[in-house]
Amino acid sequence: MTPEQFNIGLQDKLLGQVRLALAAQHHLNAGGSITLTSGIVSAQPIRDGANATSVNAALEGFVRAAALELLPRGLRINVVSPNVLIESMAAYVPYFPGFEAVSAQRTALAFQRAVEGIQSGETITVW
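^ Short chain dehydrogenase, sequence as received from the core. Prediction below:
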């Protein structure tokens, strides 16, 4: 991987979501919620996945810290960390040998909990 290729993950998945959260905070009422998406590779790296592991772990760290800063304004932020989805496993099977895929339906419940629940600063895993 080149530095330029590594930067793509930083700019797209990491900073794209960070920028979204930074903008969203100014448009939410007290009690509002921001939910981001990381993935299992934050905790369980895969072959050729150093960029994905770095980006996903950074998102989870951002959420932990941002939750503390958003708390005084009554805002919440969480991140959902799913395993590879059953519905997309065919495309990703070479990268996830031995992983047990999860359903999109089960993952959707984690997003619902992040949005409608009371927790903040949490990584909600769907493994």
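Strands lie at 33-37, 76-82, 123-126.
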